[in-house]
């Protein structure tokens, strides 16, 4: 991928996300984007699955390290953002991105690809369910990345008062992945917390 075109596309996404949505805090920032690019370049994946496209920023960052002929399947149920990420993918000249509109819970079981990287950044209440659905679709030696696992610090605390469903769900996901012998987990304090899960078997 041409880095100048990628930079232009990411700037387009940032501008359009701030202009057109009230959820711009959901946008991956520059630091996280640089990490995702570097991670993808190190892994050199042939196939990536992303759960939660939003406006496509992380999608393009992950796309940076694809091997020639590699593919990204990205799932998004909110069709209001489709024109933003479609235009951005065109600006970047990103080939191999397949946009899958709809509910991830209905789409994931139908996918028959074996993935090198799965990136989860969607409904926090469904993280554990997404994890269960994708683990068998990741090759041994592959990775699952999950965003927002610190959840503004609330998911790392047992303090009373953090009882909303999203916080409880993230805490449940963190406990599940920490105790799963099929993976090794590292949480990086990047932005809102990024879990890196390495699949052993």
Q: What does this protein structure show overall?
A:
The protein is of the alpha/beta class. The chain is 38% helix and 22% strand. It contains 7 helices and 7 strands; from the N terminus they run H-H-E-H-E-H-E-H-E-H-E-H-E-E. A 7-stranded mixed β-sheet has the order 3-2-1-4-5-7-6, with helices on both faces. Strand 6 and strand 7 (194-199) form a beta hairpin. Helix 1 runs antiparallel to helix 4 (82-92) and helix 2 (30-43) runs parallel beside helix 3. It starts with a helix and ends with a strand. The relative contact order is 0.14.
Rg over C-alpha atoms, rounded to the nearest angstrom: 16 Å
How much helical structure, as a percent, in the residues?
25-40%
* β-strand amount: 15-25%
Q: Secondary-structure element order, as H and E?
A: HHEHEHEHEHEHEE
How far apart are the termini? 31 Å
Low-confidence runs: none
In which order are the strands of the major sheet placed?
A: 3-2-1-4-5-7-6
**Gross CATH architecture:** 3-Layer(aba) Sandwich
Q: How many separate domains make up the residues?
A: 1
What brief labels describe this structure?
Rossmann fold; 7 helices; about 200 residues; seven-stranded mixed beta sheet; alpha/beta
Strand and helix map with partners:
Layout: H1 3-20, H2 30-43, E1 47-51, H3 57-63, E2 71-76, H4 82-92, E3 97-101, H5 104-107, E4 115-120, H6 127-134, E5 138-147, H7 165-179, E6 183-188, E7 194-199
Parallel strand pairs: 1-2, 1-4, 2-3, 4-5
Antiparallel strand pairs: 5-7, 6-7
């Amino acid at each position: 991928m041409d880095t100048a075109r990628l930079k232009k596309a990411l700037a387009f996404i940032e501008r359009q996300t701030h202009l057109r949505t009230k959820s711009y805090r959901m946008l991956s920032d520059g630091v996280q984007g640089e990490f995702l690019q570097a991670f993808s370049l190190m892994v050199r994946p042939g196939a990536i699955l992303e759960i939660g496209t939003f406006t496509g920023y992380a999608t393009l960052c992950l796309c940076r390290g694809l091997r020639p002929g590699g593919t990204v399947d990205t799932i998004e149920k909110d069709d209001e953002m489709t024109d933003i990420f479609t235009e951005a993918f065109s600006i970047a000249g990103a080939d191999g991105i397949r946009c899958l509109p709809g509910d991830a819970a209905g789409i994931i079981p139908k996918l028959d690809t074996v993935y090198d990287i799965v990136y989860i950044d969607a409904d926090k209440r469904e993280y554990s369910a997404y994890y269960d659905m994708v683990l068998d679709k990741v090759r041994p030696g592959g990775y699952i990345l999950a965003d927002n696992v610190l959840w503004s610090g609330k998911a790392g605390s047992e303090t009373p008062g953090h009882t909303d469903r999203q916080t409880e769900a993230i805490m449940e996901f963190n406990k599940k992945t920490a105790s799963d012998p099929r993976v090794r987990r590292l949480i990086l304090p990047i932005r809102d917390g990024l879990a890196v899960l390495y699949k052993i078997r």
